[in-house]
Amino acid sequence: MFGILACQQLILASPEPSESMARKGYRVVAEFSIHPIGEGTSVSRYIRRALTELKKAEGLRLQVTPMATVIEAEELSDILSAVETAHESLFSMGAKRVDFILRVDDRRDKERRMEDKVRAVA
Amino acid sequence: MFGILACQQLILASPEPSESMARKGYRVVAEFSIHPIGEGTSVSRYIRRALTELKKAEGLRLQVTPMATVIEAEELSDILSAVETAHESLFSMGAKRVDFILRVDDRRDKERRMEDKVRAVA
Amino acid sequence: MFGILACQQLILASPEPSESMARKGYRVVAEFSIHPIGEGTSVSRYIRRALTELKKAEGLRLQVTPMATVIEAEELSDILSAVETAHESLFSMGAKRVDFILRVDDRRDKERRMEDKVRAVA
Amino acid sequence: MFGILACQQLILASPEPSESMARKGYRVVAEFSIHPIGEGTSVSRYIRRALTELKKAEGLRLQVTPMATVIEAEELSDILSAVETAHESLFSMGAKRVDFILRVDDRRDKERRMEDKVRAVA
Predict the structure, then answer these.
(1) Given an 8 Å threshold on Cβ–Cβ distance, is C41 in contact with B101?
(2) pTM summary value
(3) Which chains touch B (3+ CB pairs under 8 A)?
(4) What is the ipTM of this complex?
(5) Using the beta-carbon criterion (under 8 Å), do C121 and D47 form an inter-chain contact?
């Protein structure tokens, strides 16, 4: 077994919310996966649209993985609000049934960002 | 908004199962997240152990994300078998309650690997 | 193989929002599962608290299952708002790390309530 | 807010595996949700088929909820094996892409069955 590097784009709100990090010290990390049901087997244009909406939201850090989008924010409400907008955008594209999964990991005893979670287990 | 690159280790079985790709043309992509309940708020040593077990399994490709491990395999049974071993390993470390989530995306009308799923939406 | 009946309490907002059903014809069905990490293996008092918060929310219909709580509402925002409150309540009990999963199924081409989904497959 | 009773069929393997309960004292509880992507918005015939396969499996106790099927078994391997068969059955019906989620809760410090989990939080 050997390893190679897979580079992926990590999308950041600009400017980096470094002051807010200093203030609270912890951030919520979540994972979001969405797709329409009944719009064919290829659903990537719907996922691109959901991503576009997530990128428009203020203060989110995003990482796209093969199965979901990881979202980091200062507050859960920022994530929920962005998810709601992304969800609604699929209906505006014509989808009649949309399913999503949101998993949230909110830890308040320790400072960390999404990269720290990978580092801790690598 | 701007982007930076986040490099993560993609772990491969050696040698690359390129012949099997040629044979079937599609592969199962899944996502696995596991943790003990009741062993403190820091569970990274348990996740490292689960990852160690996944890496031992034959024919899997793995990518660790902040919220889960993405697994690609030729057959669902290879994934289920590795997940079962990883799950059991947490009890052998002393955990008394273990929860996991496995999400599977099995597409058989199109050749693709885990990287293709990210490319399609980026 | 044979079947027995398992009776479970379905919790309703009072009065039943029958007019709103007539108005829109569809309702969002979701599933919510939450637990603290690091507060012991028995987490039922935390889940009871989350349920108490969900029951306080206006316009939700709830069904508790062995693995989650099914939530039906007229609007996704009602579900997200209740979930956010339930999530926060676990920290107010002293939890330092809280994980939840929310799965949403939003179908707008057909009238249905949570019971219809079970009937369709039984 | 008031409550009504929702009766649902709990499906049991026959005969009840009561001896095995006595032997080990704990059982794995899981939740399984499956659907094809790209076969229209109505997917209940696929879910019925998956349920048929789960019911054929030895030693499982099942409860259908509006968002998933709860599965209880003596061993995780029994659940994984049944899930694999159910998954494959959707392809045999013509589905070209199938997604599923399996959530497992395996607790070994306390005797319990799926009903106990509901009772503990009701």
Answers:
(1) no
(2) 0.89
(3) A, C, D
(4) 0.86
(5) yes
